C-alpha cells in the first residue's frame, strides 16, 4: 500500500514537472507535397485554328494569358516546331520555339506588295506622262476594278445562300462581305480619279496615287508585323516539353528555382510561419533537402475529408534529383514548445 502511494506521488510529481519545468522541445510534423518550377510557359490549342499562350507563376500564384491567335476557318495554318528542340532538354531565352504560317496572311502580303509595285510604276508614268496616257491607264484600272466588283458580288450571293442554309460559318460569310465592300470602295476611288484626270487635274491624280501608295505601305507593315508575331520565342531559359495531350502543345519550365507546395491540416496552420524551414525527401530516399516557407494560403479547402491550407516554400538546395512534378515527404520545423504543449500536439496527431 505504501509502495502504491509512493508511485502515485511520483506520477503526480512528474505531471507537475511537465507543467512547471521551462523545457523547450523542437516540434515538427510531416506532410506530403509536390515540386513545381518557378514559372511555366504553355502553348495551348483549344479549338481548330485557335491557339493561346498561358504563363503560370508558381511563386506569386498568378496565371495569365499572354497572346491569343485566331485564324479564319477557311485558312490553312501550318505549325512548325523548331527541329533542334528535344523533349526534356534545355532551351535558351529568345530561342525560336515554333512558327505559325497562315496561307491567307502570306497571300495578303504578296498581294499588297504587288499592288505597291504596280502603283509605283503608275506614279512614275503619270508624273512624266501625257494626259491621254494617264486617262487610258486609269480607264484600264477602272475596268479591272469593275470586273473585280462583279466577281465579288457573285461570290457574296453564293456565300449568302450557303450561310442562310447553315452550310458555311459566319466567319466565311463575313470575309466575303468585306471583300465585296473593298471592291465597291476601289471602284468608287478609281471613278473619282478618272473624273479628275479627264478634267485636267494632273496634280490631284498624282497626289492621290502617292496617298494610295502610303496607305498600302502602312497596310503591308501591319501584315508583316502580324506575321512576325507568329514566330514564338522562349521568354526565359528553361526545359522544353512536348506533352502528350490534345490541348497542351508545348511547355517550357523555368527551373532556375523550384517551389514546394504542400497541403497541411488546418489545425497545423498556427504552427507554421514565414521563414520556417521545411526538410523534404523524395519517396524511397533518405537524402534530405531544405526549403524556406514564403507564404501560406488562408483559403481552406477540403481534401480527402480533411480541411487543409496550402503552404508555399522556396527550395534552397539544388540537385539533379529534385525535379518538377516530384512528390516529396516534407517535415515542417516549427518553433520549440514546452513539454506539455509537445505532448498535447502529439496526442492530437495520434487521435486524428
Entry summary:
By secondary structure, the chain is of the alpha+beta class. It has helices at 2-20, 103-128, 131-164, 170-198, 202-229, 339-351; strands at 24-25, 28-47, 50-57, 62-70, 77-81, 89-91, 96-102, 231-233, 238-241, 248-265, 277-282, 289-296, 301-303, 306-315, 327-333, 337-338.
Explain this structure.
The chain has 352 residues and is of the alpha+beta class. It has six helices and 16 strands. The protein has helices spanning 2-20, 103-128, 131-164, 170-198, 202-229, 339-351; strands at 24-25, 28-47, 50-57, 62-70, 77-81, 89-91, 96-102, 231-233, 238-241, 248-265, 277-282, 289-296, 301-303, 306-315, 327-333, 337-338. β2 and β3 form a beta hairpin. α2 (103-128) runs antiparallel to α5 (202-229) and α4 packs antiparallel against α5 (202-229). The longest helix has 34 residues, at 131-164. The chain is rod-shaped, with a radius of gyration of 36 Å. The chain starts with a helix and ends with a helix. The mean pLDDT is 80.
Averaged pLDDT, please? 80
- The span between the termini is 38 Å
Number of helices: 6
Strand order across the largest sheet: 2-10-14-12-11-15
Gross morphology is rod-shaped
Taking the sheet with the most strands, its summary is: 6 strands, antiparallel, barrel
Strand content: 25-35%
Order of helices and strands: HEEEEEEEHHHHEEEEEEEEEH
CA radius of gyration is 36 Å
For the secondary structure, the number of strands is 16
Main structural class: alpha+beta
Helix content: 40-55%
Point out poorly predicted stretches: none
Amino acid at each position: 500500500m505504501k509502495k502504491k502511494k509512493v508511485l502515485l506521488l511520483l506520477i503526480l510529481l512528474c505531471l507537475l514537472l511537465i507543467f512547471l519545468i521551462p523545457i523547450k522541445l523542437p516540434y515538427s510534423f510531416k506532410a506530403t507535397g509536390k515540386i513545381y518550377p518557378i514559372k511555366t510557359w504553355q502553348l495551348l490549342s483549344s479549338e481548330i485554328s485557335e491557339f493561346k499562350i498561358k504563363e503560370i507563376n508558381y511563386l506569386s500564384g498568378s496565371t495569365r494569358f499572354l497572346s491569343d491567335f485566331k485564324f479564319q476557318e477557311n485558312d490553312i495554318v501550318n505549325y512548325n516546331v523548331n527541329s533542334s528542340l528535344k523533349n526534356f532538354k534545355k532551351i535558351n531565352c529568345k530561342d525560336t520555339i515554333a512558327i505559325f504560317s497562315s496561307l491567307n496572311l502570306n497571300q495578303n502580303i504578296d498581294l499588297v506588295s504587288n499592288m505597291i509595285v504596280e502603283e509605283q510604276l503608275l506614279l512614275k508614268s503619270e508624273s512624266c506622262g501625257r494626259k491621254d496616257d494617264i486617262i487610258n491607264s486609269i480607264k484600264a484600272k477602272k475596268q479591272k476594278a469593275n470586273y473585280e466588283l462583279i466577281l465579288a458580288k457573285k461570290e457574296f450571293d453564293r456565300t449568302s445562300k450557303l450561310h442562310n442554309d447553315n452550310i458555311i460559318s459566319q466567319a466565311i460569310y463575313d470575309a466575303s462581305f468585306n471583300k465585296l465592300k473593298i471592291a465597291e470602295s476601289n471602284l468608287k476611288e478609281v471613278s473619282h480619279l478618272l473624273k479628275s484626270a479627264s478634267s485636267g487635274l494632273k496634280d490631284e491624280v498624282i497626289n492621290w496615287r502617292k496617298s494610295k501608295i502610303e496607305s498600302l505601305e502602312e497596310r503591308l507593315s501591319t501584315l508583316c508585323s502580324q506575321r512576325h508575331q507568329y514566330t514564338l520565342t522562349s521568354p526565359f531559359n528553361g526545359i522544353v516539353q512536348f506533352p502528350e495531350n490534345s490541348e497542351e502543345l508545348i511547355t517550357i519550365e523555368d527551373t532556375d528555382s523550384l517551389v514546394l507546395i504542400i497541403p497541411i491540416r488546418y489545425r497545423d496552420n498556427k504552427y507554421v510561419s514565414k521563414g520556417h524551414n521545411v526538410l523534404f525527401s523524395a519517396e524511397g530516399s533518405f537524402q534530405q533537402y531544405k526549403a524556406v516557407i514564403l507564404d501560406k494560403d488562408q483559403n481552406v479547402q477540403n481534401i480527402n475529408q480533411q480541411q487543409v491550407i496550402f503552404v508555399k516554400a522556396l527550395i534552397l538546395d539544388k540537385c539533379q534529383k529534385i525535379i518538377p512534378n516530384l512528390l516529396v515527404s516534407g517535415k515542417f520545423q516549427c518553433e520549440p514548445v514546452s513539454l506539455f504543449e509537445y505532448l498535447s500536439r502529439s496526442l492530437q496527431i495520434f487521435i486524428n
